[in-house]
Amino acid sequence: MSVLKVYNPIDIEVDHGDGVYLYAIDGTRFLDFTSGIGVNCLGHSHPSLVNALKSQGEKIWHCSNLFKVVGQETVADKLVKNSFASDVFFCNSGSEATETSIKVARKFFYEKGYTSKNRIITFEGAFHGRTLASLFAAKNPDHTRGFGPDVEGFDQVPFGDHEALEQAINKDTAAIMVETIMGEGGIRVIPEDCLKGLRKLCDERDILLILDEVQCGLGRTGKFFAFEWAKIKPDIVPIAKGIGGGFPLGACLMNKKTASSMTPGSHGSTFGGNPLAMSIATVVLDYILNKDFLKNVIKVGNYLKSRLDEEVIKKYPTLVSGIRGKGLMLGIESKIKNEILIKEMINHKLLTVKASQNIIRILPPLILEEKHVDEAILKINKAFKNL
Hints:
Shape: globular
Radius of gyration: 21 Å
Low-confidence stretches: none
Mean pLDDT: 97
CATH class of the largest domain: Alpha Beta
């Protein structure tokens, strides 16, 4: 094979998808509880997305940001109107959105005359992307090994250690950056009181709060952004995954004070926010921002969580110990190697994805219905009975 061997893919060659289902080339149908790792929020081959892609594809795909791109103002306005932000920068991925967040935080204090105030505090178990800066922000040794020297400017503290966090703040601290819900890090939810505490701490110490919502944002928890549950406003938020509904797209949202430091030439992207991406994002946002849509995410998410708890967690205490997460971003706590359970679920045509802390990550499309939950519980029961 000529494809670089940095992945270890499941032995399923995907042919097509339809709603919450994926079909292999041999016709086998799988209930997809991965949604492309939280990306396909409207499921597979959604008619509105297909129509948007075809319609825009017949006009113009790409022109670069040398020109005013059709749709950018529309998408940015929707994001700003429904968030804390005043400005939006478009890019192509979560990693790029995170990188933008880091640059904005540093530039903000540089422009204020604090040239050494450029360090960012991050948390153990985080995942912020695969670029060099985002890798060393998270400092996962499995991901950074062989890619030294370290990218400087990041101070990591244990997750949930409030005392260590306060001690880590010094005169050079520019920001605290954390995922509102850690995805790769094991579906660890930051409690609402802790999010409020972070906001207060940042205000008191004159530092910025960056909440990484690449995976947990865009309706995944039943709110447009996961931090909304705590009723706080961050300063900078990187997003990606769901915003493009499967089309590569990321964005960095920032409030008025942080956006003021970014001037023409200070950042950029050749592909970011191109016409194809914007046509799709417009449709995605029209669906997600519908209150009934988000209410359904909460309803079906609660139904899924309760059925998992009652009919899986309590039924198989030797295999699993609990369920964590929010909305349709859930994690099953496995007591044996999570890969064993994931493989057995694949054998029964249910797709899930692993995470750290021996977690089985459940990230179905946000169009999930209760009948799909019922189907999933049947598949899980059959799979776990075999073990």
